[in-house]
Amino acid sequence: MNSNSIAAQSNITNHISAHYPISWSMCRAEQATLIQILKNIKPKVAIEIGTYNGGSLQVISDYSEKVYAVDLTPSYRDKRCDNLSNVDYLIGDSNRIIPELVKKINNSDDIVEFILIDGDHSSEGVLEDIINVLKLKPKQPITIILHDSFNPACRKGMRLYDYNANPFVNYVELDYVTGAFNHDGLYREMWGGFACIALTPEKRLTALEISAYQDKLFKTTYYRSIHFFRKFFWFLKPFYKVFKK
Ligand SMILES: C[S@@+](CC[C@H](N)C(=O)[O-])C[C@H]1O[C@@H](n2cnc3c(N)ncnc32)[C@H](O)[C@@H]1O
User: Fold this and answer.
1) Among the atoms of ligand 1, which is closest to the Cα of residue 119?
2) What is the pLDDT of residue 3?
3) Do 115 and 142 contact (CB within 8 A), yes or no?
4) H or E element at residue 90
5) Is 93 a pocket residue for ligand 1 (Cβ < 6 Å)?
6) What is the C-alpha to C-alpha distance for residues 162 and 212, in angstroms, rounded to an integer?
7) Would you say the CB of residue 56 lies under 6 angstroms from ligand 1?
8) Is residue 150 part of a domain?
9) Best label site of 82, 145, 196, 212, fewest CB within 10 Å?
10) Angle at which helices 152-160 and 123-133 pack, to 10 degrees?
């Protein structure tokens, strides 16, 4: 099959890219879920941490009245994002920008209803983003989607927040959408997946249970992944590099 016919086939089967042409760093299941969530909520205000090309942003912008899009750099952003007239681009480290933005929103009439966290993928970076966005006072229910909950570092960051200490958190699911095992020879990484956190304006009265619906799948995959290997067999790295060649 030549490359033209492969391209034609992927156009035929990719119903999402027909509507949203900017490339995404998300799989089809994640794209479809994100579209459906936004279609249901139609947020007055949305926040995205981690814009990159603008793949997820093109959808968030489509369904929201106003979007704050945060990224370290605008350099990867697709030119077509310039047409998204309801987006306010905030350039810099989310760790600095989100606290300022949250303070501004808490003192304004802005009603945040949706947040995507997909920026710094280290455990500390994910945790900082959660700590900072969860300082928002919910005026309406807020749905927060966190990308890459199947990645061990991101998942660890997502687990580190003390959700029970925040009375507005009413739901936490680490496997809202299950992630994937990228088994490219020896390079076996775990990525993708959506965690979901729901906030409500009413305070929670009972203890909260953090759900991880596919934790067994996560653990089974982890022991076969490069993440486990790197953590416990780091001293074999020079041999691994030779073997990989
Ligand atoms: C995986 S990409 C986002 C993909 C995008 N959400 C999508 O689905 O198309 C991650 C982005 O987060 C940005 N990023 C990483 N660390 C960040 C930080 N501390 N503050 C703001 N943005 C950050 C990177 O520059 C990169 O563009």
Assistant:
1) 12
2) 45
3) yes
4) strand 87-91
5) yes
6) 15
7) yes
8) yes
9) 82
10) 40
Any idea which residue has 């987006």 for tokens? Answer: 87
Q: In which band, very low, low, confident or very high, does the pLDDT at 1 lie, cut at 50, 70 and 90?
A: very low
**What confidence score (pLDDT) does residue 2 get?**
47
Q: Is 69 helix (H, G, I), strand (E, B) or coil?
A: strand
Kindly state whether residue 137 falls inside one of the protein's structural domains: yes
Tell me, rounded to whole angstroms, the distance of Cα 72 from its chain centroid.
16
Q: Does 230 map to a domain?
A: no
67 lies in which domain range? 24-214
Pocket test for ligand 1, best of 51, 87, 133 (most atoms within 8 A of CB): 51
Q: pTM here? A: 0.92
> Residue 163: CB within 6 Å of ligand 1?
no
User: Tokens 């600095």 map to which residue?
Assistant: 96
129 lines ligand 1 (CB under 6 A): no
Nearest-angstrom CA–CA distance, 133 and 102: 7
The runs of H, that is alpha helices, within the chain are 3-13, 15-19, 28-41, 55-63, 94-106, 123-133, 152-160, 215-222, 226-232, 237-244
Number of structural domains the chain divides into: 1
CA 184 / ligand 1 centre spacing (Å): 23
Residue 182 belongs to a domain: yes
Ligand 1 atom with least separation from CA of 120: 16
Reduced to 3 states (helix: H, G, I; strand: E, B; else coil), residue 91 is: strand
Ligand 1 binding pocket mutation candidate from 47, 72, 87, 189 (most atoms within 8 A of CB) = 72
**Region of poorest pLDDT, from 91-95, 133-137, 224-228:** 224-228
